[in-house]
Amino acid sequence: MVSEYTYCPYDDFFIERVDHAVGFDMPSFHIHHKYEIYYEIAGTRRYFIEDSAYIVNAGSVVLIGENQIHKTASLGDAPSSRIVLNFSSEYLQKIADCFPGVDFFNFLNEEENHLLSCITVKQQNHIQTMLQQMLALEGQTAPESEAMRKMLLATLLLELKELCRRQQEQGSENGRVSNHTVDQIQAYISQHYAQKLTLTGIAAQFYISPYYLSRLFKKSTNLSLIEYINGVRIKAAQNLIEKTGDSIAHIAEATGFMTTAHFRRVFKDATGLSPQQYRQYYRRVNK
């Protein structure tokens, strides 16, 4: 299967369309200090966000908040097409400042809004058209093009926010695929991530076989158990990097990584930046 990795850590705005003739899986979980809008043009995907898994059909929109762990995987080997857009709040800061009473971003962080699926074909086409317009502006550096791109994005966000409100108002299902045992295991990991965690040890805690745990967790979340553990640890590490001056070695140890080298490798795979680069980037954008 083909793998994909879509994220530009130094860009405040990034958009692309990709069409795949066969199934593909993201090689590992992904996390970034930006928001993301994912529109499924064709095909069906399985999407893991934070502690939840979703089935994403053509015409659905996936909304991902800042620093939310996510990964997508195929269901079978069928063709698929999608547009993905990620952006920072700073990218729209001037527009947001013009409308202090309007919240452009927080709805993207809410679990009930991760999957927007109760939308009409007309609404789907409208969303895709706006994304295509932003795609057409790629590479254009004129001030007018930048203004148009930002206004399109701001308009899209407000329209998606309204669609999320309507979906909640209708009491529609949020599309989450859950398993009680997996939910318990995820809660256990969130409490013990700083400790040494193994497949065998966690399986023993829940009186199940390691083989069954491995299969169940992968089927429910699209992640191996170690991928999920690393994701929880990386999120904790991000918080420490942002809020403390602790050394990278100390943060690696405090979040359960056995070696600093392993921590650096996993962190860069997940965020696109080394821990030190992430600290520098975070300080720059939060001056």
How is this structure best described in words?
- The chain has two domains: 2-169, Sandwich (Jelly Rolls); 179-285, Arc Repressor Mutant, subunit A (Orthogonal Bundle).
- A hairpin with a 2-residue loop joins strand 5 (45-49) and strand 6 (52-56).
- It is 45% helix and 18% strand.
- It has helices at 93-98, 121-136, 143-169, 180-192, 199-205, 210-221, 225-243, 248-254, 260-271, 275-285; strands at residues 2-3, 13-20, 24-25, 35-42, 45-49, 52-56, 61-64, 70-74, 80-87, 115-116, 176-177.
- With 287 residues, it is an alpha+beta fold.
- The strands form three sheets. Strands 2-9-4-7-10 form a five-stranded antiparallel sheet.
- Helix 2 (121-136) packs antiparallel against helix 3 and helix 5 (199-205) crosses helix 6 (210-221).
Tell me the CATH superfamily of the largest domain. Regulatory protein AraC
The arrangement of helices and strands along the chain is EEEEEEEEEHEHHEHHHHHHH
The CATH architecture of the largest domain comes to Sandwich
Radius of gyration: 19 Å
> Please, how many domains?
2
Structural class call reads alpha+beta
Largest sheet: 5 strands, antiparallel
Shape: globular
Residues in helix, %: 40-55%
- How many distinct beta strands? 11
Produce a short descriptive summary.
This protein has 287 residues and is α+β, with helices and mostly antiparallel strands. It has ten helices and eleven strands. The longest helix is centred in the middle third of the chain and has 27 residues, at 143-169.
